[in-house]
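re: ur question from yesterday

yeah so i grabbed the chain u mentioned. its 407 aa long if i counted rite. heres the sequnce exactly as i have it in my notes:
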Amino acid sequence: MTWKAKHTRNPYSVPLFPTRKQKEQSGFYLYMKKDTEHDAVATIAEHAKVELSSVGKMLDKAEMPPEIDTLVEGPVIAIEKSSVYINIAPFGTGIIYGREFINAKDIIKKVNIGDVVKAKVVSTDNEDGYIELSLKEAKQALMWSEADKAIRSKMPLELTVKEANKGGLILEWQGIAGFLPASQLKSEHYPRVEDSDKDKILKALKMLVGKRITVVMISALPKEGKLIFSEKDTNPEERQEIVGKYAVGTELDCTVAGIVDFGVFLKVEEGLEGLVHISEIDWGLVEDPRTMFKIGDAVKAKIIEIKDGKISLSIKALKENPWKEFEGTLKKGDIVSGVVIKFNKHGALVSIKQGVAGLVHNSSFGSEEKLKKSLELGETYNFQVTLFEPKDQRMTLVFLDGEKKAE
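ran it thru and got these structure tokens back, copy pasting raw so excuse formatting
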């Protein structure tokens, strides 16, 4: 069946529980004089033996749309050149179109009318009365959910080594690239190289490309789109026994076992390593952990979390918190001088002291381009504090327009 209707009007029958707009379009509401309406409703209620209050409750319940980001499921009822329609009763009709249609083209190619699919709600106030859906976001949400289950169950995964770099191996799981640090390789695969020559390590690791190895997933970072694997953790019972000896708050003497873009792996004991995420290395901005550590370095760290057989560590937790200095002294409205230390997609990061930085948002300048024209990296300016929450290490600032650079 081919639907010729355009998006300006719902070509399908009104759903079991339609939106208010769909009811109006389909003649659901009858407009009449107040007396006539009262008599008609009373008569209907009498004959049907249904309480009007119950009818009202049913209609109110029917009007409730699904929440944004909710996963919904239903059969595909039509596929057009640039849109897909899904019956998501009792909410109505869902539509995948525009950017969401383009993003999910590869998935849509495999979908047929009648197929039951899962989708994620991205908007509930479509002007045509549809609920806007995303197939790609639903697929990603389901994949990360599966990744979480794989971590909890410690399920062994047999994956192919796709690439190698000086830090370890790149694997792929359900289309998501994952990293297997060299420090997480079993002894038979670990590159034994004299003097820790990086080029020789890379050469040894490249010999594993194309081979299938058994690993377990030990971490998933959805926001960064990254997975971390280990070849050492294929015996969950043994690992749980080792981890069980430790408690949150314990301070440890460790050695650096691996360095990656997002942090540092520290060897706690034989067969057990913990991750220090880049945000837990120092109170100040850390761009590249490789500039601060090398394999074999002795490091003190504190256990901040033990979850699903994993130990999360912090190096900065053993250092004095610089934010405490400003508790009770710095507040909203105060004028401070600060140096611009980084630009990101949100704006400029400004440091008022080593380890204490706040954000100057793009919106305060009108655009990212205007912000970068007004502020230079490494330069010091005067700013006004608009938010200061030292306990959560949060601060926002606004540039004092027209002020000269601070001395």
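noticed a couple things. The domain at 322-399 is CATH 2.40.50.140 (OB fold (Dihydrolipoamide Acetyltransferase, E2P)). also The longest strand covers residues 212-221.
anyway ttyl
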